[in-house]
Amino acid sequence: MEETISLQDLFKTLKKRLALILTCMILALTIAGVVSYLLMTPIYQSSTQILVNQTQQEQEQFTSQEIQTNLQLINTYNVIIKSPAILEKVIERLTLDMTPSQLTQKITVNSAENSQVLNVTVQDPEPHRAADIANTTAEVFEEEIPQLMNVDNVNILSPAVVGENPAPVKPDPMLNMAIGAVIGLMIGVGIAFLLEYLDTSIKNERDVEELLDMPILGLISPIPDSDVNLDNIVRNRRKRR
C-alpha cells in the first residue's frame, strides 16, 4: 500500500515536536555564540594603497598605451608583492616569527577594474602588527621593484593606519549565531520527521485502517474515569448488603 503524507500531517508533526525543534535551534545558537565570543581569535585588518604610474613623466604626458602597459604590469606586481624576495625582507625588518609562506596567507593584493591602484590588505590578530606589515610590505616593494623589473613607477598612495578603537573584521558573532540558529532549526526539523517516521505505534483509527487495509466498522468511545469510579462504588455497596 502506498503511503502518502499530507501537508496537514507535516504541520502536525512540526507542532508535536515544536519543543524539540526550538531546543535544537537555541542550542546551536548558543554554541555559535560561545565559539564566536570566547574561542575564536579576533582578526584585524589594515590596508595600504600603491599607485602604479610613470613617475619620471608628467601626468599630462600619459598616453593610453602607457596606461594600458601599467595596467598589465599590475598583474605581475600582484605576484611580486607576495613573493619571498619581498616578504623575506619584511620579516627581517619587523623581526616576525614566521616564514614567507605563513606571511603570504595574511596578505591579499587586489586592484579595482581599470585602476592603477593596488590595495595591499593584511589580516592579523594584532591591529598594529597588521598595519606594520602592510606598510613595510609596500615600502619594501617600492624599494625593490626598480631592481627587479628595471622600472620606477611605484609610489605609496595611502599608508595603513590604526584607529583609536579598531574593530575586528572577523569573526562576526551575529552572523555566526544567525547561521547557527538556521542550522539548529534544520537539524531539529530533521530529527522531528525522523522520530515521526520511526514511530510505528498505532495512535488512531486511521492508523488501524492503513495497517490492516480494512475499513473501520465502528468505534468504542472511551469511558470517563468518573463513570468507572461510580460503578465501583455501586458494586461495593451491593457486596456489603
From TrEMBL:
Residues 142-194 form the Tyrosine-protein kinase G-rich domain. Keywords: Cell membrane, Membrane, Transmembrane, Transmembrane helix. It is found in: Cell membrane. It is a multi-pass membrane protein. GO terms for molecular function: protein tyrosine kinase activity. PANTHER family: FERRIC ENTEROBACTIN TRANSPORT PROTEIN FEPE (PTHR32309:SF13), TYROSINE-PROTEIN KINASE (PTHR32309). This is Capsular polysaccharide biosynthesis protein.
